[in-house]
Design brief:
Elements lengths: L1 H13 L9 E14 L3 E15 L4 E16 L3 E17 L7 E20 L8 E16 L4 E11 L11 E10 L1
Antiparallel strand pairs: 1-2, 1-8, 2-3, 3-4, 4-5, 5-6, 6-7, 7-8
């Protein structure tokens, strides 16, 4: 039984697909950064995402995505703040090269719900606003590299725009690396 499941998995992994229209994609990604500076001050960010997409043409996809980002900033005797952002979004993804390309750059745009929780204290005992819930605009660029017909590696830069203003793109900017599985 185990052996037949193994060979079924190998078959699904390498069996060629005949085009991408009508194909589903499940993907995820992760990133982590940490900076230490100025006598014990530390800033760290951890982000992961998960997505489910459907190709309605060979180059166009509708994607439902979840992104979870936690940022922790510590400045001794000044602040110890943690922000957790959760973004639930629906996006339109357009691939710039055709389905036969090994490397497929893409652009992404959509709308999402941002839920931000902030905890911690500033110098003097002040706390950040506890909760922010708002609708936000999503924008991103990415690159998929096909490993097989059913598996791809990807890198993606995404920003959720505060108040829908393009000038705030750098305020909530994340670069993730991960993978996708097509079925």
């Amino acid at each position: 039984m185990r052996k037949s499941r193994f060979w079924l998995g190998v078959f699904i992994w390498i069996y060629p697909m005949t085009g991408e229209c009508g194909v589903f994609e499940v993907g995820s990604g992760f990133s982590y950064s940490r900076s230490a500076y100025n006598a014990g001050s530390i800033s760290s960010t951890r982000s992961w995402n998960a997505s489910f997409g459907y190709y309605f043409t060979q180059d166009s996809q509708v994607m439902f995505s979840y992104q979870d980002t936690t940022t922790h900033d510590i400045v001794p005797n000044v602040q110890d703040i943690q922000y957790r952002d959760r973004v639930y979004s629906v996006n339109l993804v357009y691939h710039l090269l055709g389905e036969g390309s090994l490397v497929r750059p893409y652009v992404r745009g959509g709308v999402g719900q941002l839920n931000r929780d902030a905890t911690g204290t500033y110098q003097g005992g002040f706390s950040p606003p506890g909760r922010l819930d708002q609708v936000t605009v999503i924008g991103g660029l990415g690159l998929r590299v096909r490993v097989t017909q059913r598996v791809a590696l990807k890198a993606e830069a995404t920003s959720y725009l505060t108040g829908g203003s393009v000038s705030t793109w750098q305020d909530n900017f994340v670069v993730n690396v991960g993978g996708s599985f097509y079925f």
